[in-house]
Design goal:
Layout lengths: L3 H10 L5 E8 L11 H7 L4 E8 L18 H19 L6 E4 L2 H8 L3 E7 L4 H13 L4 E5 L21 H11 L21 H10 L13 H7 L14 H14 L6 H4 L13 H5 L5 H15 L4 H23 L20 H9 L5 H13 L4 H14 L4 H11 L5 H10 L25 H8 L4 H7 L43 H20 L29 H6 L12
Parallel strand pairs: 1-2, 1-4, 2-3, 4-5
Helix pairs in contact: 3-8, 4-5, 12-13, 13-18, 15-16, 15-20, 17-18
Length: 584
């Protein structure tokens, strides 16, 4: 059987040869900017021509995963991505260049668009799914090589101060090594000029690229129904702010929050806020889509300190959170598919007793725990939640409801505008203690998941004592949520063609063999399969009115009103040592 080199040689003999100096730059969903883009810098250096391109893969959008009916992306998150790509195209056109956009599998589109190029440059992926995509594209390239360029973090792998293939599981050790032995490069300014677009020798290729230079898919092209596509462009007036995709919008937000409103000096004190737009930078959606780089944000924070002549714990804290982001990314890079497994890195075999109804009630914001329900409603209607709200709803799903954490991670993946595969899955894995610290086992066996560990009462007293966040999002709690929420899966959502549900599992494999405890996981999958059709079409009233009582409503056993809950009961609950952190 011929190897890769022989296969490429045979293919090359039957087709045209690449033009030396003609290059392609494959933009992806995490590097949609010109400033501080290392792949762009590498691609345009000494290039005679440069073809920027982007590929929308329908499999990454309205496609069901194996986790409780969650999809790869909601229409709202897809809309934000479309805006980011459109903005990138406008910026490239201002340089006399452009952006060729394709719809389909990157392994087919990228080789076809770059057939005359001698090299294709791309920002290297952090997680296994993105890495497999790179391998598939590289295999299909006939005349050119895929040049993977690292970018998007503060520290680069060879300047990390840690072994990038064996990252310490403790954040403090990782951070100390980075600060003592590593270094952070300065952000790279955007190029002063870009090479011209290539002139293709073959008419068919030239016509296809010319068409791709003007093409941008609609949400319906990505598989969403007309109704859901329409809802995706409606902004809930209670949302903390309106996110507009693109590099210019990211810079405008940084300027407003950091300099105009002067919030950086108070960041550490206000970051646990839950209502309003000023309590955090809100840059995370743009960071996730690569519209602004962490190195640039860090440099702007240093510029703020110099201009305002102030340096305190708050001005330190934002760069510190960016270092935490690096930790998550390098954990994902070094641990591979383990971050998607039921037992995480520790391989914990603890049972999960949560039901499909528990999961659906959590998703709908109908658990009866007002603080949890407020957060889930904000997520559903806006694609965003505060750092504190994410911690609350995640620990409630894991510890109070006992639901497999991967279902929560998949739901966040579907809806969060700032979804990043490394940050999302590593932090969800960390929440039940499946990351481990310094090799020590800290799995669920150290907790009693039958006790209410993540109750809203303690969180209310610490972070929302005036109940303003609850009133903000649950004022209409006794009305049918379907009147204001996007169409639910199984109703208006367009299902995969041929009537079959496409099940995708992060980290490969299938729904039946993901977990460490295969038998328990198989039983859960079978139970969910039997119940899913009924649960996905039932009315929202069927899972409770959400009137302040835990475990789905009035008659549940999950708790009582926050004001009626005794301090004695709260004191009996075991304390958690897990933290849910997110660069906001």
């Amino acid at each position: 059987m011929p190897g890769r080199a022989e296969t490429k040689l045979a293919q090359g003999n039957m087709s045209r040869k690449a033009i030396v100096g003609h290059r392609a730059l494959w933009f992806r969903a995490n590097d949609l900017r010109l400033d501080d883009n290392t792949a762009l810098q590498a691609a345009h250096r000494d290039a005679k021509s440069l073809l920027p391109l982007y590929v929308f893969d329908p499999a990454c959008f309205n496609t069901l995963t194996a986790y409780g009916g969650a999809r790869k992306s909601s229409a709202r998150r897809a809309r934000f991505l479309l805006e980011c790509v459109a903005s990138l195209r406008q910026r490239l056109e201002s340089y006399g260049s452009g952006l060729a956009v394709g719809l389909g599998s990157p392994s087919k589109i990228v080789p076809r668009f770059s057939s005359d190029c001698d090299a294709v440059f791309v920002t290297e992926g952090f997680c296994s799914e993105e890495k497999r995509e790179e391998v598939q594209v590289a295999w299909k390239l006939v005349h050119s090589d895929l040049k993977r360029i690292w970018g998007g973090t503060l520290f680069f792998p060879n300047e990390l101060g840690n072994d990038p293939d064996n990252i310490p599981l403790g954040h403090m050790q990782f951070r100390n090594n980075c600060r003592q032995k590593g270094r952070i490069r300065d952000a790279i300014p955007e190029p002063a000029r870009l090479p011209p677009l290539p002139q293709f020798e073959h008419m068919e290729t030239s016509a296809e690229i010319a068409k791709a230079m003007k093409f941008l898919p609609s949400l319906q092209d990505l598989g969403y129904s007309a109704d859901e596509a329409q809802v995706a462009y409606v902004e809930d007036p209670r949302g903390v702010m309106v996110w507009e995709g693109g590099e210019d919008a990211a810079w405008a937000r940084l300027q407003k929050w950091m300099f105009d409103d002067d919030h950086l000096k108070d960041y550490r004190d206000i970051q646990n806020g839950m209502v309003g737009e000023g309590y955090s930078s809100k840059l995370s959606p743009w960071i996730a889509r690569g519209c602004i780089s962490p190195r640039r944000i860090r440099q702007e924070a240093l510029r703020y300190e110099a201009q305002r002549m102030i340096k305190n714990f708050s001005t330190y804290w934002l760069p510190n959170m960016l270092e935490w982001r690096d930790f998550m990314i390098y954990i994902a890079r070094s641990q591979g598919d383990r971050i998607f497994k039921l037992g995480g890195i520790t391989g914990d075999r603890s049972p999960w007793h949560g039901t499909t109804q528990d999961l659906q009630s959590w998703k709908d914001g109908r658990t009866g725990e007002d603080l949890v329900d407020a957060g889930m409603k904000e997520l559903l209607l806006t694609g965003y939640m505060s750092m504190r709200a994410r911690h609350i709803v995640a620990t409630y799903l894991i510890f109070d409801l006992g639901v497999d954490w991967r279902h929560g991670a998949a739901h966040f993946e579907e809806h969060l505008l700032d979804y990043d595969p490394a940050l999302n899955w590593v932090m969800w894995m960390q929440a039940p203690g499946l990351l481990g610290r310094g090799g020590r086992h800290q799995g669920l066996l150290h907790f009693s998941v039958k006790k209410s560990v993540a109750s809203q009462r303690k969180q209310l007293s610490n972070h929302a004592p005036d109940h303003a966040y609850i009133r903000h999002w649950l004022a209409d709690n006794h009305r049918d949520m379907s009147a204001s929420s996007p169409p639910r899966q199984g109703a208006a959502h367009k299902q995969p063609a041929s009537g079959q549900r496409t099940l995708l599992v992060r980290g490969g494999g299938s729904a039946g063999n993901i977990g460490v405890d295969k038998e328990a996981n198989a039983k859960l999958s079978a139970h969910m399969e039997r119940c899913s059709e009924h649960l996905l079409v039932q009315s929202s009233e069927a899972v409770g009115e959400g009137n302040g009582h835990g475990k789905h409503g009035k008659n549940g056993k999950g708790g009582e009103h926050a004001d009626d809950h005794s301090a004695d009961d709260a004191a009996k609950r075991p304390k958690r040592n897990n933290r849910w952190r997110k660069t906001q």
